[in-house]
Design goal:
- This protein has nine helices and five strands.
- With 215 residues, it is of the alpha/beta class.
- It has a single domain, classed as NADP-dependent oxidoreductase domain (TIM Barrel, Alpha-Beta Barrel), CATH 3.20.20.
- The N and C termini lie far apart (38 Å).
- The structure holds NADP nicotinamide-adenine-dinucleotide phosphate.
Length: 215
């Protein structure tokens, strides 16, 4: 079999495997992971969508050195969703990607809303600011999540946790008022003033920023 055909066959097998693992005949959303091979994978996902087996299709990345390709794909393809990294201390997608998503009507899933462990290291031992009451946040998790979902370009934040108590805390981020633009700027100033902690994840972010600056 020619290499091109083999790639196509493998891409189809991946999609079929997703249906088997999920045990469903229809899946709401399948995305090309980390920019994968959109030229090959998106046409296949589109076929499934036309057959009614996938409701929405999209593409993801959490790597700034892939943002340029993501932007090109958003401009040239019909996408329903993108998934990107966004947090109160990691806002580079605000420049081009989120405005383009709004312009093109593309829904946005926010990954890494806590920067994995990065934001937790930064707020360790820090008291939640009193002004957080003004948008009904009672914990740092709710502060971080409300910052994200109050951005009009964001469709949903996807925090992950292994603990039911943290899950309940994170659900609290969907309840009550959200910060307005002036309050969002205040939240950024608060987090920017916190000490930077050198965790594995912050080194990962610095690496991502330095890659982006070199481009
Ligand atoms: N390209 C992609 O498609 C891509 C790339 C990266 C990530 N993602 C997705 O993005 C989602 C989030 O990623 P992530 O888990 O790496 O990062 P994250 O959600 O930013 O951070 C998760 C960390 O936060 C902690 N945490 C969660 N809720 C908490 C709370 N209320 N209080 C204190 N700590 C809390 C968790 O610890 P505990 O377990 O102890 O709560 C865990 O260590 C996942 O669904 C992942 O699959 C997608």
């Amino acid at each position: 079999m020619a290499a091109g055909q083999l790639i196509l066959q493998r891409a189809r097998q991946q999609v079929e495997a997703s249906f088997q693992r999920a045990g469903r005949s229809v899946i709401d959303l399948i995305q090309v992971h980390n920019m994968g091979a959109p030229d090959v994978q998106l046409p296949i996902l589109r076929e499934y969508k036309e057959e009614g087996r996938i409701r929405y299709i999209g593409i993801t990345t959490t790597f700034p050195n892939q943002y340029e390709r993501l932007i090109e794909t958003m401009q040239n393809e019909e996408l329903d969703f993108i998934g990107i990294d966004y947090a109160v201390d990691n806002r580079s997608v605000e420049q081009d990607i989120l405005p383009l998503a709004m312009e093109r009507g593309i829904a946005v899933l926010c990954y890494l809303p806590f920067g994995r462990s990065r934001l937790w290291s930064r707020v360790r031992g820090q008291t939640l600011p009193e002004y957080a009451q003004e948008f009904d946040a009672t914990t740092w998790a709710q502060f971080f999540l409300k910052f994200i979902i109050s951005n009009p370009a964001i469709t949903a934040a996807t925090p992950s946790t292994s603990r039911p108590t943290n899950m309940a805390d994170n659900i609290g981020g969907m309840i009550g008022r959200l910060p307005d633009e002036a309050m969002r700027r205040r939240m950024i100033a608060t987090v920017d003033a916190l000490p930077l902690c050198l965790t594995i994840n912050s080194l990962y972010l610095f690496n991502k920023v330095s890659i982006a600056l070199r481009q």
